[in-house]
Specification:
The protein is mostly helical. The protein has helices at about 5-15, 20-30, 75-85, 90-95, 100-105, 110, 115-135, and strands at about 55-60, 65-70. α2 (about 20-30) packs across α3 (about 75-85).
Length: about 140
C-alpha cells in the first residue's frame, strides 16, 4: 500500500546497482527536503532513540497525515524523506496499515544501515504511527 512517491523511490533503488549509489540517493532525497523551521526544533518534537538529532512535526489536516522533519545528519534527513514519501498524504487510518519494515526492506535498507540507524528509523516509524493513531 505504498504511495506513488514511495514507489518512485523503490523503482529508483532497483535501478541503482550498488549500495553506495543508493546511499548517495538517500542523501540527495534529504537535501531536497524543505528545512524544518528552527522554532519547531523543540523537545516535544524530538524523536528519542535516534543516534543523531531528529525532529518530526506532524501536520494533520482533513483527516490526512503529513509531517515535516529535520536531522543534523544528512543520511538521516534522507531517511526522513523516505518516510515522508511512505506516509505523507495518507489518511490517519492508512498510516496504521502501512507495513513499514516490509516497505523499507524493498529498498534494502535493513542490510545496510547500522544498528543505531535502524533503531532510529524504528523510533521515527513508532512516532508517526502514534501521532496518527491519536489523530
Amino acid at each position: 500500500m505504498a504511495s506513488p512517491a514511495f514507489e518512485e523511490i523503490a523503482e529508483t533503488f532497483e535501478f541503482l546497482d550498488d549500495w553506495e549509489d543508493r546511499y548517495r540517493h538517500v542523501i540527495e532525497l534529504g537535501r531536497a527536503m524543505p528545512a524544518l523551521d528552527d522554532s519547531f526544533k523543540v523537545p516535544a518534537l524530538k524523536v528519542e532513540g535516534c543516534a543523531s538529532q531528529v525532529w518530526l512535526r506532524p501536520v494533520i489536516a482533513d483527516g490526512r497525515f503529513d509531517f515535516q522533519g529535520e536531522s543534523d545528519a544528512m543520511i538521516v534527513r534522507g531517511l526522513i524523506a523516505i518516510l515522508h514519501a511512505l506516509y505523507g498524504g495518507l489518511t490517519l487510518a492508512e498510516v496504521g496499515q502501512v507495513d513499514a519494515p516490509a516497505e523499507l526492506a524493498r529498498l534494502g535498507l535493513n542490510e545496510h544501515l547500522s544498528a543505531q540507524r535502524s533503531n532510529g528509523v524504528r523510533a521515527m516509524v513508532e512516532r508517526i504511527r502514534k501521532v496518527a493513531a491519536e489523530g
